Write the structure tokens for this entry.
Amino acid sequence: MITIKLTLVFFLAACAGTVSAQKTRALVMNMFVDGVYISPTAAGSMLKIEAQKTGQFITVDRMDISLDSVTKIQIQNCYNIDCLVKTGQAANTDKVLSGSIQHLGNKIAVTIKLIDVKTGVIEKTEVGEFVLLENEIQPMIMITLNKMLGIESRKETVEYLAFYENIDPTPTTKIRNNGPRMGAMLLGGNAADRLTAAESEGGYDC
């Protein structure tokens, strides 16, 4: 009995180790924000939460990195590829997740990019366009991230937040019915004979 229990424990531990090994260690950075009422730090925290929910990452954020004060200040505005890769190297992660949230006209655009630290190139990127509902930023991040990773999001949520360009209406012609009118009528047979007959013959002399 003891042998069976020990075997089960070792099996579960091995399975847990395999699952952990399959996950990618990713540094989640702040997101660039423009025109929306959310801070880059808050946006980055939302991105980290949603990345964890996918089950594909072991997430690390800038608070987990031991850096000097000067480097920490630079990280606050770390959005370009070079900075993100160097920070990922300092954090000893395989990937870096970052992106942007921007108010563009009558919509909100969410961009998420996954950068490979070893090669220094953007491995995946996705852009989502959403309606102007700033209190729904986290679901917008979730939808964009899931699409980038090939994960299906809830259909109702996508339809509720997705931005659709206005379609040009079908051209119409307006008719004005006021003013003089003209018309014509073509008749034949008995009706025509009656209209053209003289009034003395019971016609209308038309």
